[in-house]
Amino acid sequence: MPNSPSEPERWPSGEARRVVMRRKGPMLVEGPVEVELEDGSVVSSDRFQVALCTCRRSRRYPWCDTSHRDRG
Questions:
Q1: Distance between CA atoms of 30 and 13, rounded to whole angstroms?
Q2: What region holds the Iron-binding zinc finger CDGSH type domain (predicted)?
């Protein structure tokens, strides 16, 4: 199975892309990244790591602005 944990999909550089899930926080993704939104638009970041909002409270969605901390 190509997407199993033992055989990660490789990027052209040969490196696997790392995504870190947090229970009460954002999803951390090694960058640079392009994110396709529900409406089909694409936003991008060239940072070495980005925090993607999973609670949808961010004013900068899809980027996390730590708004999840306000409401716990």
A1: 13
A2: 30-72
61: Cβ–Cβ under 8 A, 6 or more apart, which residues?
53
Which tens digits make up the pLDDT trace of 41-65?
999 999 999 999 998 889 999 999 9
50: exposed, middle or buried (Cβ count in 10 Å: 0-12, 13-18, 19+): buried
Q: Please list, in sequence order, all residues whose beta carbon lies within 8 angstroms of the beta carbon of residue 65, skipping any fewer than 6 positions away.
A: 53, 58, 59
Q: How far is CA 24 from CA 37, 61, 71, in A?
A: 22, 16, 11
Q: Give the C-alpha separation, 21 to 24, whole Å.
A: 9
Q: Which residues touch 50 (CB under 8 Å, ≥6 apart)?
A: 28, 29, 31, 33, 63
